[in-house]
Amino acid sequence: RQMLRHKLLETSMRFRWCRPTIYKRTRQEIMSSPSSSGVLSTPLGTLKILLRSFSDQLSNLTPDKTSISNPPNALALLHDSTSVLRAQGTKLSLLLLNKPFTSSAIASILASISAECLPGLMTVYEICSPDMYGNVTQNEVRNQLRDLVSAIRHLVDDMEGMAEFADTEGFKQFEESVGKREDILQVTGQVWSVCDRMLATAKVGIVGVAMDKAKEWEALIKDAIDELEGWDPDADDDFDVDIDSESEEGRSRQVISREAVNEQQKGIDGVQGNDMKHPINGNDTELQSISQPPPTEHSQTTDIQGAKAKTLKFLKLIKMLYPALRKRRISTYPPFTRLHPTSSLHPWHQVKQFSDMLAFCEDFSTATDDLADVLYDRAPNLVQAKMELMTTMACRC
């Protein structure tokens, strides 16, 4: 573990995220063992500053391009940084929850996280460019780093209260706070969970991440199909209201509905009767147009039923694309994990083609939701246009 930490620190020092000034300050904090009441305030403050800076960097969807000529394997650095962070988090949780409460040891771990782990992880985000690793891998790494930064910030917030009494009441006061102990256990579990996801990403590599995301998008389409199959167009949403016939409001609604139907029927009968008595120039064209009923709700429901059946058949065909894409496009892509040298990375144009194919796989799930919304809004005339758009996307895969 010491060799891994030394390797990680040496690698991180090559990049701008681990600046010499920050490294010098944190190293001084690690070597020093102050006895003042603010023994935890300094490393906590340093860690909060780094977390705030890293959070701002992660909010940038297009990270600054690195000027490193020969960057290391981003997945290997992700694995090493995450392994050290998880080990440090384990030691930190044990020191926080068990006797004796040693402030200096906790401060040393916090300083180590600030000097080694976080700069290494942010270096991963900097060198994991979409031109080399693809958009899907970069987005996955960014989302995991966001979750990690959020979990560590929650842990820091819980520890700030402890810094106030670290050298006074010590563990006795903290032990009496059962809620605080549970909060630290929960946040530590979140850190472990994110670390496990990041280690899995480094292990499966680019192809494994793409395979998992494709399965997630296929599951979204399957859920949309299941929901659409359970939807009944005959159940009019406008009248899908539970009316209690025993209540005053329910009886009044029923009376109003019956009166409206009767008045409408009387009006139609009156118009038809007058026109029958006074035909215009013997021409019954206008009579037929008046007496012909407008399109009924039943005919509209029939159109929606047909559009629903057509849409379900089309979406099931789209869903069948995913197993084929996983077998013939994703699994055949040359793998790249933390164990591969950076020289085995593919040219940018091949990476772009792979990313474009995955982008279409993701867009299918969004287009499926749009297609279902058209049916739910009872606009079957727009179904064909949506399906043609998805067909074009499928041909480009």
Q: Please work out how many helical segments DSSP would assign.
A: 15
Count of β-strands: 0
Distance between the termini: 45 Å
Shape: globular
The Cα radius of gyration reads 32 Å
Say what oligomer this is: single chain
Summarize model confidence as the mean pLDDT: 77
Task: Bin the helical content.
Answer: over 70%
Strand content: under 5%
Give me the secondary-structure category: mainly alpha
The biggest sheet, with number of strands, parallel, antiparallel or mixed sense and barrel status, is:
none
- Uncertain segments are 13-37, 238-247, 250-258, 267-294
User: Order of SSEs, N→C?
Assistant: HHHHHHHHHHHHHHH
List the helices and strands and how they pair.
Elements: H1 2-12, H2 20-31, H3 41-58, H4 74-97, H5 103-127, H6 130-133, H7 135-163, H8 171-176, H9 178-229, H10 248-277, H11 285-291, H12 297-319, H13 321-330, H14 348-376, H15 383-396
Short key terms for the protein model shown above:
mainly alpha; globular; 15 helices; 0% strand
In short:
Helices cover 74% and strands 0% of the residues.
